[in-house]
Amino acid sequence: MARSSARRGQTEPIAALVAVVAICLGLSLYVGVLDGALPDSRDRQVADHAVDTVERASSVAGVVRPSRLSTARSTAPDGYRCNVTLVVDDRRWTAGPAPPNRTQTASRRVSARIGPGRIRPGTLRVVVWS
């Protein structure tokens, strides 16, 4: 009886170890597939950073000027291209090449100078891609 008890004790830890390895493998495969299916948060951070820098570069005293969009576009992060669009009422100003299908986008409400003494609310939209 002592022999069977000793054997039994050795078999159960091996089975438990195999079960733990199988569960770990399954979880790592699941996380790998899930990670590939979700959008990359780093891309969103690039777009958010780009809209911040474009707004600062195209603003004077906190008011965006459409004439400065072309130079503000050059503030895109290294390795990325960008397209900048300012929309105020029914007017639109765009600087940069047309974006491809896969891009990251960020936008924000801004004050825009559309003429001498004429400041209106608008939307600044920045599209970045690598």
Number-wise, the strands total: 6
* Rg of Cα set: 28 Å
How many helices? The count is 3
Query: What would the CATH topology of the largest domain be?
Result: Beta-Lactamase
Global geometry? rod-shaped
Number of domains: 2
Relative helix content = 40-55%
Return the string of H and E elements.
HHEEHEEEE
Structure classification? alpha+beta
Please give a structural write-up.
The structure is a single chain. Strands 4-3-6-5 form a 4-stranded antiparallel β-sheet. A two-stranded antiparallel ribbon has the order 1-2. It has 2 domains: 1-38; 41-129, Beta-Lactamase. The model has no long low-confidence stretch (mean pLDDT 84). It starts with a helix and ends with a strand. It has helices spanning 2-37, 41-58, 69-73, and strands spanning 59-60, 63-64, 81-88, 91-95, 104-115, 118-129. It is of the alpha+beta class.
Strands, helices and their partners?
Blueprint lengths: L1 H36 L3 H18 E2 L2 E2 L4 H5 L7 E8 L2 E5 L8 E12 L2 E12 L1
Antiparallel strand pairs: 1-2, 3-4, 3-6, 5-6
Briefly characterize the structure.
This protein has 130 residues and is an alpha+beta fold. The chain is built from 3 helices and 6 strands.
Characteristics of this structure?
3 helices; rod-shaped; 130 residues; 2 domains; alpha+beta; 6 strands; Beta-Lactamase; two-stranded antiparallel sheet; 45% helix
